[in-house]
């Protein structure tokens, strides 16, 4: 590991330096006033961990399974659309790093590399995240392709009836159709390292949708089609339809209310992800860590409770476990790693998480992460 990289925040700074502003803002930002994005980070920080001494904490145990699959640490790489804009063939690189390190990787519907690209790149099972489109045939086809590629879980994202408005993206021209104004051209031109590297990308648009729509050759038309395809009629029956279509492990992502968590159990979800989409959808939603305990209590052991939103350090993971999560997902942290140094940067992020987890466990006096419980975490007012 590069000794100058001591935390995820160094990877974030490197990503900021390497990426054109339009791409960094897309990765970093949240919806509207970014209230929820800030809450995710602030509320995790505001939790304190109880220190315990006089316990043998040698030989810590960090591994577990996530929906039946081994994970070296309680963390999966979450789905992030357009990751392939941060590094050439970025999704394949992220997936390779996940395999090398030993954690699950989840590919987004809105990726640049396709399901088949990632399957070829790693030869190992990965998770596929599905956004439901209005056109049922496209959904069916994506589900079949995920099955053919031996995806080991389907992650159905529930919180995209409409797309959250990220003001920076709209101003930067990242909204659809993409705009290439003078400002963007200057921005991109002043990042030659990124520009030259992107020449190695195999694809230039949404890899999973290229074969599904007629306008696929025209990036602007494809983007417009995608924007118009998010399905506001998506309801519980739609989830049941997906459950019938997919017989492998099904994970429902975007649960923020105990009632929805109970419905997820009723439709047969193998896991849920307590998530507000990293603050990119409903601005003013509570932080995901603040709703986690009620949701974990509502479902008990009837489904696996996963968590994301604001994870930047190993101690954030311990806090989420203490609040009732079985394991976590990382969105931006691993993406900063990818944007900074490709697969090496993702590996660096994962190793940082692992070391920080070990250090944190030693100081809270826990040898096995499965023994982290509510007693480890306490609210610390004023932080
Ligand atoms: C750049 C970016 C793109 C994202 N794209 C998707 C996506 O395509 N599908 C999805 O379900 N979630 C998507 N998310 C949300 C993440 O999966 C995850 O819920 C969120 O990033 C967690 O918060 P964190 O970034 O603080 O870890 C995206 C997040 C980011 C930052």
Automatic annotation (TrEMBL):
A Pfam family for this UniProt protein?
FMN_dh
Q: Locate the FMN hydroxy acid dehydrogenase domain: which residues?
A: 1-382
This protein is called: Alpha-hydroxy-acid oxidizing protein
Under CDD domains, the record lists: alpha_hydroxyacid_oxid_FMN
Q: Enumerate the active-site residues.
A: 277
User: Gene Ontology terms, cellular component aspect?
Assistant: plasma membrane
Q: What's an example Gene Ontology biological process for this entry?
A: aerobic respiration
Q: Which InterPro entries match?
A: Aldolase_TIM, Alpha-hydoxy_acid_DH_FMN, FMN-dep_DH, FMN_HAD, FMN_hydac_DH_AS
Does the keyword field hold Flavoprotein? Answer: yes
PANTHER family membership: 2-HYDROXYACID OXIDASE 1, S -2-HYDROXY-ACID OXIDASE-RELATED
Annotated residues that bind FMN are located at 79-81, 108, 129, 157, 253, 275, 308-312, 331-332
MF terms (GO), sorted A to Z: FMN binding; L-lactate dehydrogenase (NAD+) activity
Annotated residues that bind glyoxylate are located at 26, 131, 166, 277, 280
Record's PROSITE patterns?
Answer: FMN_HYDROXY_ACID_DH_1, FMN_HYDROXY_ACID_DH_2
Say which family it is in: Belongs to the FMN-dependent alpha-hydroxy acid dehydrogenase family.
């Amino acid at each position: 590991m590069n000794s100058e990289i001591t935390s995820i925040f160094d990877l974030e700074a490197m990503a900021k330096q390497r990426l054109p502003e339009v791409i960094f803002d897309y990765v970093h930002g949240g919806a509207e006033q970014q209230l929820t994005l800030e809450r995710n980070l602030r509320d995790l920080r505001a939790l304190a961990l109880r220190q315990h001494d006089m316990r043998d904490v040698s030989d810590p145990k960090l591994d577990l399974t996530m929906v039946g699959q081994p994970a070296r640490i309680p963390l999966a790489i979450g789905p992030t659309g357009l990751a392939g804009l941060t590094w050439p063939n970025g999704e394949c690189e992220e997936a390779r790093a996940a395999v090398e390190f030993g954690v699950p990787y989840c590919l987004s519907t809105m990726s640049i590399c396709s399901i088949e690209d990632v399957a070829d790149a790693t030869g190992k099972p990965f998770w596929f995240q599905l956004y439901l489109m209005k056109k049922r045939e496209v959904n069916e086809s994506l589900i079949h392709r995920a099955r053919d590629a031996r995806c080991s879980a389907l992650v159905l994202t529930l919180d995209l009836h409409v797309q959250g408005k990220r003001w920076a993206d709209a101003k930067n021209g990242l909204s659809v159709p993409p705009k290439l104004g003078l400002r963007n051209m200057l921005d991109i031109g002043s990042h030659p390292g990124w520009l030259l590297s992107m020449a190695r990308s195999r694809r230039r648009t949404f890899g999973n949708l290229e074969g599904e729509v007629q306008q696929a050759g025209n990036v602007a038309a494809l983007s417009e089609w995608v924007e118009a395809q998010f399905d506001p009629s998506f309801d519980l029956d739609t989830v049941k339809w997906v459950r019938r279509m997919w017989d492998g492990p099904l994970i429902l992502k975007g649960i923020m209310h105990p009632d929805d968590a109970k419905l997820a159990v009723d439709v047969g979800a193998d896991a849920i992800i307590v998530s507000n989409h990293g603050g990119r959808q409903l601005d003013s939603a509570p932080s995901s860590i603040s709703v986690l305990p009620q949701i974990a209590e509502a479902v008990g052991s009837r489904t696996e409770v996963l968590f994301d939103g604001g994870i930047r350090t190993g101690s954030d993971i311990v806090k989420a476990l203490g609040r009732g999560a079985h394991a976590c997902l990382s969105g931006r942290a691993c993406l900063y790693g990818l944007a900074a140094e490709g697969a090496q940067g993702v590996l660096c992020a994962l190793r940082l998480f692992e070391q920080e987890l070990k250090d944190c466990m030693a100081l809270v006096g826990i040898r096995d992460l499965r023994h982290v419980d509510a007693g480890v975490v306490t609210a610390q007012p004023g932080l």
